[in-house]
Amino acid sequence: MSNSGIELDGEPAESTTAMNPLMGLAREDLIGAVGMMLRETSGRPMKSIKHLKKFTGEVGKIVTNRSELAPDPKDKRFLDPTWLANPLYKATMQYYLAVRKGVEGWVDDVDLNERERAQASFVTAMMLDAAAPTNALIGNPSAIKKALETGGVSLVRGLQNAYEDITKNDGIVSQVDKRPFKVGGNLANTPGAVIHKTPMMELIQYAPATDKVHAIPFLIIPPQINKAYVNDLSPDKSIVRFLAAGGIQTFMVSWRNPTAEHRDWGLSEYVDQLVEAINVICQISKSKTVNISGACSGGITAATLMSKLAAAGDNRVGSATLMVCALDPRSSDSETGALVSKHGLELAKRRSAKKGVLDGASLSRTFAWLRPNDLVWNYVVNNYLHGEPPPAFDVLYWNNDSTNLTAALHADYLDFYDTQPFARPGTTTVAGHVVDFTKVTQDMFIVAGVTDHITPWKACYRISQLVGSPNVEFILSQAGHIQSLLNPPGNPKAKYFRSETRPPADQEAWLASQAKQHAGSWWPFWLGWLQTRSGALKPARKTLGSRQHPPGDAAPGAYVFD
Questions:
Q1: What is the per-residue pLDDT across 59-76, written as a single tens digit (0 to 9) for each?
Q2: Active site residues
Q3: Among 259, 414, 273, which Cα is nearest to 346's?
Q4: Which of 27, 75, 91, 285 has the fewest beta carbons closer than 10 A?
Q5: What is the pLDDT of residue 256?
Q6: The pLDDT of residue 108
């Protein structure tokens, strides 16, 4: 273990989105950004002429083979050697790079405020990604080679893939080959059973994997976006299986995928369901307390639960783990945070209220177009131009198994972003109580990811300053959003950072002088932390549930298939 500079370069697979689409990226704002750029062009022609001259000069260098423009080494679009060996392709690539450089320079130079600049950068980046020569057959040498090598079969397969997406995938380019995966088969197959069921949730108890278990049980609270089995993915990535092997009595909520008829299920109703789940777990385990964890939006729900229990003097939550969760999001946390506008928030709320839900397909499409080069054009090239199937990857399979979000919960999350109840204790009523996270004094374990573009690590870090607990552990994983969560032992590249003392208010000071690098996964450290807070060992029960709550459907339950 040693001090180490934390690398902040993201991995393409982790660059899933630059911001959470729940926060209201309105198409009207983007259209307005285009109009604003046109006004800047006509209103300040000298700046435009200055950048046009630079671009023209670079084109002259390209034509005479004197240009030194080269793609970023991490840009996989131009890895084919033809881009350098063939003069025509090299000139095409450099012309595209010159256009990109010129447009980005112009956006940086014009007089815009923070939000306008973010909107202009977002719109122009989307347009430039779409205009890349690699997105067309004639401009993609690797696709042409593939077509010649296969006698045109790759193009036929590409058309078939496109037809499948149009007719069976809601017009969204497929990111994953779903055929090798089956929920309850090779995914979500840890033994267990549903021991309590309501119209909103199924509570799953998992079978013990050891002869003795710790007395205090553990409840996993999943996000309402996507499905709970991210915590029990393939056996080698299963948090549930890992905890059970460590002697932890493991329970998990599986939320129902709501439809328009459930439009009124808001954060208050979801928190009430968790209180009900804790009642059941305490009855089954005979424990007076339950340790909990929540990730992403499930972390917001878990934090609201803890605040509400604290306000009521209910001490049944023993400790809490919040993973890749932001309770105090700010526009400065990410490069596109300024895109969020009050106008966008109101429009997003209005649209979901009209439909009753924010549907999963809409969420998937928004996520994809917030990061089009990674999540759209990359797959257009692979699936359509190369005629290859998308990768068979369990995380992508789960990520594409989307769920709806009720209009009420969507509105609650949008209000949460606007009112900042955790950052302003004692000012806002949420889920039937006045939120005050300073009254939450349970031990807290916080996990963030260095390259997380959904919940930036600095936003997650701020939880350590919001909570009233004197014992706070902050872990910074060298990974992105999902890879920080699914971080099993065995990855030789895995590492994380932590300090021996409670995280200070100054993030940069923690990063520069207190954070120590540790090799490997953070899971074993977390398990040890959790075991010390899970009571004494006792013989594991041979049966699941209880007389009042007998086992029903086998894990992963029925709601996961909705």
A1: 999 999 999 999 998 899
A2: 296
A3: 414
A4: 27
A5: 98
A6: 85
In the CATH scheme, what is the homologous superfamily, with its name and number, of domain 8-26+152-482+522-562? Alpha/Beta hydrolase fold, catalytic domain (3.40.50.1820)
Q: Where are the beta strands (DSSP E) in 461-515?
A: 472-477, 495-498
Ramachandran assignment for 188, one of left (phi > 0), alpha (psi -120 to 50 degrees), beta (any other): left
Q: Please give the Cα distance from 426 to 179 (Å, whole number).
A: 50
The reported pLDDT for the residue numbered 289 is 98
- Alpha-carbon gap, residue 442 to 425, rounded angstroms: 17
Burial 103-113 (b: 16+ CB within 10 A, else e): beebbeebebe
SS (H, E, C) 79-145: CCCHHHHCHHHHHHHHHHHHHHHHHHHHHHHCCCCHHHHHHHHHHHHHHHHHCCHHHCHHHCHHHHH
For range 445-468, the mean pLDDT: 93
Q: Half-sphere exposure (CA, 13 Å, Cβ side) for 484? A: 33
| Amino acid present at 397 | Y
Distance CA 126, CA 104 (A): 12
* Both structure tokens of 71: 């793609």
Contact 452, 484 (CB under 8 A): yes
Q: Which of 129, 128, 69 is nearest to 98 (CA)?
A: 69
Contacts for 436 with CB less than 8 Å, ≥ 6 apart? 307, 310, 311, 425, 426
Map residue 208 onto helix, strand or coil. coil
171: tokens are 């017009």
377-380: long-range contacts (C-beta < 8 A, 24 or more apart)? 377/129, 377/130, 377/132, 377/134, 377/135, 378/12, 378/76, 379/173, 379/174, 379/175, 380/135, 380/173
Alpha-carbon span 462 to 327, nearest angstrom: 8
Nearest to 44 by CA among 110, 90, 94: 110
Length of the chain: 562
Which of 40, 50, 58 has the alpha carbon at shortest distance from 99? 58
User: What tens digit of pLDDT does each residue of 169-195 get?
Assistant: 888 899 999 999 999 999 999 999 999
Share of the chain above pLDDT 70, in %: 91
What DSSP string runs through 443-468? EEEEEEETT-SSS-HHHHHTHHHHS-
Q: How far apart are CA 344 and CA 453, in angstroms?
A: 20
Q: What residues have CB less than 8 Å from 69, skipping those under 6 apart?
A: 58, 62, 94, 97, 98, 101
Query: Which amino acid is residue 388, in one-letter code?
Result: E
What are the backbone angles phi and psi of residue 484, rounded to the nearest 5°? -70, -35
pLDDT of 110: 80
**Please, where are the H alpha helices in 372-494?**
372, 378-379, 394-399, 407-419, 457-461, 463-466, 481-485
Q: Which two tokens stand for residue 362?
A: 């809409």
Taking alpha carbons only, the member of 152, 154, 145 closest to residue 85 is 145
